[in-house]
Write a structure and sequence with these properties.
193 residues, mainly beta, 5-stranded mixed β-sheet, rod-shaped
C-alpha cells in the first residue's frame, strides 16, 4: 500500500544549508511503488575546503512501514575550486624618476573567497622615504575581486645619479591563496640632464 518517509540532511564535516541547499522533505510511495528519488543540490561557495561530508537520513515512516537498512547515507561534497595564486602582474618594471607615481598591479588566478596578502620592501638600492614612499602594507581582496593596486610615490630631484631599484615582495597570504609571482623589481630611472 501507500507509504511516506521523511528525508533530511545533517551536518558532517560539511554544513547542510551551506555546502548543499537546505534538504528536508517527505517522499510519498504509491501502492506497489518500490523506489522514489530526491535531489541534492551543491552550493559553490568559492572557498577551497577539500572534500566534505553530509549525512542523509530517512526517518518517520508511515505505519505499518518500517525503516530498512541502511536508513542513512554519507554524501561526499567535492571541492571544485582550483588553487588560487596571488602575485605581481609584472616581475620587473621601470619608471622615469620625473613621472612621480607608479602603480603596481597584484592579481589572483581565480575569483575565490576574500583573503589578504602583505607586501613590503625587501631590497634594492633606492631608499624608502628618500627615493620613494608607499612600499609596505596589506592588500585585502573581496570575494571575487581579481586585482588590487600598490601605489609608489617616486621622489624626483635635480641631481644626476645612477638608476636605483626597489624590490617589493608579497608575503603571508591569509584566507586560502598561495603565492605566485611573489616579488617585483622596480627600477627608478634617472632622467636628469
Amino acid at each position: 500500500g501507500p507509504a511516506t518517509v521523511r528525508y533530511r540532511a545533517v551536518d558532517g564535516t560539511g554544513t547542510a544549508g551551506v555546502d548543499i541547499l537546505p534538504l528536508d522533505g517527505v517522499l510519498t510511495f504509491a501502492g506497489g511503488q518500490a523506489t522514489r528519488t530526491f535531489n541534492v543540490t551543491g552550493v559553490d561557495d568559492l572557498i577551497r575546503e577539500g572534500k566534505e561530508t553530509i549525512t542523509l537520513i530517512l526517518s518517520d515512516p508511515s505505519a505499518p512501514t518500517v525503516l530498512g537498512y541502511p536508513s542513512t547515507a554519507t554524501l561526499t561534497v567535492l571541492d571544485t575550486e582550483r588553487p588560487v595564486t596571488v602575485g605581481f602582474a609584472q616581475p620587473v618594471v621601470s619608471i622615469a624618476e620625473s613621472r612621480g607615481e607608479l602603480t603596481l598591479t597584484v592579481t589572483r588566478s581565480e575569483p575565490s573567497a576574500a583573503f589578504t596578502v602583505d607586501y613590503s620592501v625587501t631590497g634594492g638600492s633606492a631608499t624608502e622615504g628618500v627615493d620613494f614612499s608607499g612600499g609596505s602594507g596589506t592588500l585585502t581582496f573581496a570575494t571575487g575581486e581579481m586585482e588590487k593596486s600598490i601605489v609608489l610615490s617616486i621622489a624626483s630631484d635635480t641631481l644626476p645619479e645612477a638608476n636605483e631599484n626597489v624590490v617589493l615582495t608579497l608575503s603571508n597570504p591569509v584566507g586560502g591563496a598561495t603565492l605566485g609571482v611573489a616579488s617585483s623589481e622596480v627600477w627608478i630611472v634617472d632622467d636628469e640632464l
